[in-house]
Design goal:
Elements (H helix, E strand, L loop, with lengths): L6 H6 L7 E4 L3 E5 L9 E5 L11 H22 L3 E5 L15 E6 L16 H13 L2
Antiparallel strand pairs: 1-2, 2-3, 3-5, 4-5
The structure holds adenosine monophosphate and zinc ion (ZN).
Zinc ion (ZN) binds next to helix 1.
Length: 138
């Protein structure tokens, strides 16, 4: 299923050209137009899913293995030292394009910090209560 108003549907299905680093029947991986580092790639399913919660398990289950392959190619082909795998769901989480995609961001020793957060503090009873709220919602 495609969404004719979705730019990532058009890119994934080849209607709009892109710098493609990988393609198969179900996915296209392209270079991000606003890269966080040299080689920053996006894995796009060819079918339209708004986010990871909408994707079927078969599609979702292929994203991590593909991210690992692309990350390994970035290390070999670009000399990256590591890579981040990032996936945003919802505008509060930083999602700006509402077609499921996975960022694979090569990292180079001495390069800028790209993905980080300030660790907070939580007592163990608070962690238990929070875990119970999530468990009860499955
Ligand atoms: P997110 O914030 O997780 O939704 O990520 C969207 C990403 O898509 C951003 O990193 C943008 O730079 C990138 N982006 C938006 N439009 C295009 C496009 N036409 N081609 C390639 N990357 C794009
Ligand atoms: Zn789409």
């Amino acid at each position: 299923m495609k969404d004719c108003n979705c730019i990532f549907c058009k890119i994934a299905n080849g209607e709009i050209p892109s710098a493609t680093v990988y393609e198969d029947d179900e996915f296209r991986a392209i270079l991000d137009l606003g890269p966080a580092s040299k080689g920053h790639a996006l894995i796009l399913p060819k079918n339209h899913f708004k986010d990871i919660c909408e994707a079927d398990d078969a599609t979702a289950g292929k994203l991590f293995p593909l991210a690992a392959k692309i990350g390994a190619a970035m290390k070999k082909g670009l000399g990256a030292d590591g890579f981040n795998v990032v996936q945003n769901n919802g505008s509060s989480a930083g999602q700006t394009v509402f077609h499921l995609h996975v960022h694979v961001i090569p990292r180079y020793e001495g390069g800028p910090t790209i993905v980080s957060w300030d660790p907070g503090k939580a007592e163990s009873d608070e962690l238990t209560k929070t875990a119970d709220l999530i468990k009860a919602a499955f």
